Amino acid sequence: MADASGGLPALTARGLRKVFGTKIAVAQVDLEVRAGSFFGIVGPNGAGKTTTLRMATGLLRPDAGSVHVEGVDVWADPVAAKKVIGVLPEDLALFERLSGRELLMFNGALRNMDAGVVTARSEELLELLGLTDAADTLVVDYSHGMRKKLVLAAALLHGPRLLFLDEPFEAIDPVSARAIRNLLAHFTEGGGTIVFSSHVMELVERLCDHVAVMARGTIVWSGPLDELRGAGSLEDAFVQLIGEASDRPALTWLGNSPA
Amino acid sequence: MARKFARLKLRLVRNGLRAPQYAALFTIGATGSAILAFVGFVFLAGLRGDVMQDNATIVTFAVITVVWTVVPLLGFGTDETLDPQRLALLPLRRGELLRGLLVAALIGVAPLATALALSGSIVGLTHGTASGLLILLAIAATLLLCVIVSRTLIALLSPLLRSRRGRDILVMTITLAVVAPQAFRLFSSSSHFGDLRNEMAEVAGRVRYTPFGLGGIAATEAGKGHLVHSVEASAAILALVGVLLFLWERAIPRAMTTADTAVPAKAVERSRRHDVPLFSRWLPFLPRSRAGATAAKELRYFIRDPRRRTPLIAALVVPALFMISTFRNAANHPHAITLLALVSLLPASGLTLNQFGLDGAALWSTIVTGNDVRADLTGKNLGTAIVITPIIIVPSVAIATLTHGWGYLPLTVGLAPGLLGVIFATGDVVSAWVPYALPDRKNPLVANPGQGCVGFIAAMGALAFDVVVLAPVGLVVAAMLSAFPLALTTVGGIVFASVYGYGIWLIGRRLAVGHLQWRMPELLVAVSPRQAG
Fold this sequence. Notes:
The complex is a heterodimer. Chain A is of the alpha/beta class.
């Protein structure tokens, strides 16, 4: 299970599969993410990215397959696995009637962290993410972007080694986005690993060193970003891989007259 | 346009049935509605020839109309076809929109159940063709009034309903409005209490001159052969419907364009910077652990979340009513009546039956921090125990004071922790085996049908189980009271109840933990149905 550099891979998924009724959400996912990498999972809507991340983080039980984070089996030893990961899911359901500050304290206490450490880290994270002024406002009154930043703060609070981020920059203002990008870059420089899902190609191209392309519930390509895009852009390589026809006929009636 | 809305509504119902998790809830909801409709029908039909037929019919029509007025405001029983905001971008004229929404509102389980229940009065009251036709008219007019009054009120109140604070205030106001008259009635009129016939006459006398009583009057007058009076009452309902339609039409444009949060956010109080957030300084004994944090979170929720406050207020009503009734006859009671203050523990069981359902989809955030269900349940139980403590102590002290039963106070208060242990054990087991999602209160116009029934069945089952498991404590204390002096019974009873309750709590919690420890992802799906896709 050792990767090319000799260390344990941060994430290994083998034969992951999930079916909802008759719909195959994830048919077969095999993935290996090297420690210290910024790993992007890209794919069209409904490709199975979110389902894969939920199975990898212990939130959705796979029908088949296994996931290891930092060498720990997520489904055999969930407690040990959850100590080393931080999660920003797509669905931002939170304890709405706590304030931002209280929510961070709650998360720290659930992990049995020292209250002093949680308080100090919370203040730093709130400051960095521009949430200090709203820290005592109830989460129910937060905007979508503020909630996302708060969940990111909660995901970072315990100093995880592996971060799972599902569309982390969606609805985030440019100033906060830059702060988050710097923070994530700092995280990977320190040896942390990020698994990041998005369908914004420019973002993936800018941030990630490795990518996996998902379509119809399977990984159709995985490897270094530069290898995938070659001389062109990631978007071109992606469209070519997914096999979307680029020469569909134009809608001749569009823009002519309303019905 | 009306036909298109009707097709849309039927299509949405059919599509809802295709998702297994909604299909089950829909079936339960539909079965519950069918039972209510059947009961209503049989009641109204079975009144034929009864002395209180007129009054009971008027009261039944009025109760149904009041339910239609109030319940949709709380977010139950409505759906997305009735949300004008979803149609804001379509180029529809106001009249078309109104007709479409009206047709969509008239199609569904609730209008059908209402029509079935009310049609019992055709069997109960009809004397001849003309009277039968007029009763049918009265039923149709009442159904129209029911549907339109609920839609109009929602449209008029939509600016309020779309803000979080507005919904909170509304939920609290309606709860108090429902509860207050009960307390007042019990306190003020003792002579009529328990006499159903007089009660019916009194209530019918009050509602017959309100819009809620018109439907019943139209039906009963037709039944008595007073056809003109019946037509007048039905005409009055239809005139009222006309006024409501006018108001509804005026309110639709505003309902379509009101933003979701109209009230600016306000920060929670946090007096001293060095306070530890989450942990109130009033509760310094709470451990700074997973269980302690869960208890602290639960306590915040009891104060801030109307979904918790409402059952809490309901749980307070029983001891309050009990105290009022004891107060009225204080001198006649034996001192041992103080023990009855323990009754106030039973409604508290409702607070513990769906403990993870109250967390909802946010449960993911506790799952990703580890799978310590034992600590989570302990914390939840601890939080509830802290809330319930005053609910048991205040009535005990008050009743002891009123009846001079001070000698029984230590036994009463001392038995409470043991009994609470049994209630928590049941609550933990039910929470683990029968978790269900609560409606999403962010959008008052959308709700998942059927959940009320699941909750009701779980609550009744748990209450019955509590009574059975609590019986040994009651028997032991009663036996000791008859055989030994009070002081000895106090010590012996408290020791027995505490050991017994603690043991049952450990067993209940262990069963719940054993069931949930490896099933947290499934629990998450159960309490947040929309997540399964």
